[in-house]
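Before we proceed, please read the two lines closing this message. Let me know whether the structure tokens fit the sequence:

…
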Amino acid sequence: MALVILVNVVGSRTGAGSGGVADVSGAGSSSSHGQLPVLPVQTPPTSAGADGACPALVQDLPQQVVGEPARRVSSASPYVRAWGDPAVVLVCGVERPAAFTVGAPLIQIDGVQWFVDTSDPKTVVWTAVDRPVYVQVRVPASTDSASVTELTSHLTRALPSQAPRPGS
């Protein structure tokens, strides 16, 4: 089985430059951490499992994801990070997705198994289901999965894998 992930690369929108050559280095980001407004993020109450597992993950997360800068968040949980506008949001220690039941399809990226919820037309919700805690990455539906692919390596380093635990 092969998984092909396509990355959407967009050229400069300012009109300056060399005729549509995309800047994929991340150095040309149009906004910085301090310029983006604080993003409010609703989270479930923090669990003991999250307190044990999530610090290692959030300490390992990058300052940029697919060239987009980290941005400040306002949340009851210390285990939330966000990048860019529209934001890609990672929340460590969420509850198991209700639709993640026995037989639900999963997508594996670099050793992490993801349950993908596309029920919201504006946001695709990816949940890592094979770690000691569930980790959710919310991605604008207008973008591709490159941010999830980039964040996967951080999950692999920080959280050990285990068998997924679907609901009945």
